[in-house]
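Folding Query — how this chain folds
Tokens — whole-number codes for backbone shape
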Amino acid sequence: MQKYLTTVFVLFFFVSVRCEAQDTLKVKISDSVVLTKEQLAPKENVHIYFRDRAQNNYFKDVLPIITLLLGIFLNRGWDKLEKRRQSKKHAQRWRDELELLRAPLESQIDACNKFLVELKASNSKVPNITTHFTLQCLAFDALDKSEFIRYLEAFKGDHTTAVRIAGSVNVLILALKNNRKIFDERLQSFISSVSSHTLELRHALHDFGQSLQNYMIERERAKDDQNNPHVIALWLLFEEYIEQYQKHSVYDIDKLEKEFVPKYFIIGDNLRLDYRLAPITATVQNVFTATQNLKNNRFYIENNIEGVIERYVESSSNLENILKEL
């Protein structure tokens, strides 16, 4: 042992340095121990003890492993909780979107019923109808279906129940989308057809007036009796059912079909031998055809709107059942 400085390097064992005063210094393999003269004096003896590794504290050795495993389990637990939270968040979004369908469904059913009442009350005008964009269900296209099913499995605890509820929601959305598509297509087709056949009716009525004027001119040129009661009846027929409506081009379809056309053929029967009446008869036939087309269009749209209402009522009932299960 040197007089002023003693250095001990420990390579493979834990070292304990103990002096007579029972002072102990523990060092590891990579430590260096420096003992000065002042630390040694007035001690005369210094004892160095080598402790076997078997007597070591294993807790220090396994602590990093425990910490690592704990970190892994905590991380997995956190991931599971996060996924559960995300699933619940997605499921709540699904429920919110389903809840938002309630009011538009009820409003659309009321609007369709009102449309039918007004359509049947008026045979000359097409009533307006309100359509709800929400019933196209476009918001559901952006939602995650797999997260919704995972939520149902987690909170319902039954895969079969989760699949059944998810299937019911999917069927509801498809039904609403399809019903809205049919509704839009039928309504647009009706409006387009009504516009086309109304134009045909106007042209036919205009041609009737023009043909009647030509007929009267020909009778005048032929010096026929202009006071013929049947000819006068033709003019009165024109004034009653056509002339007074020409300004606004709004005609009473029922009166044209049930009154104007039959009356004309009764009058025309008394003038059947007059070949000059043929162009007028042709225009009356066109009037009758146009009125029939318009009535058929109304019958067509009435049946389709009634079908739309039935499907919306069914979807509304299914929606309530789904919301009760979520």
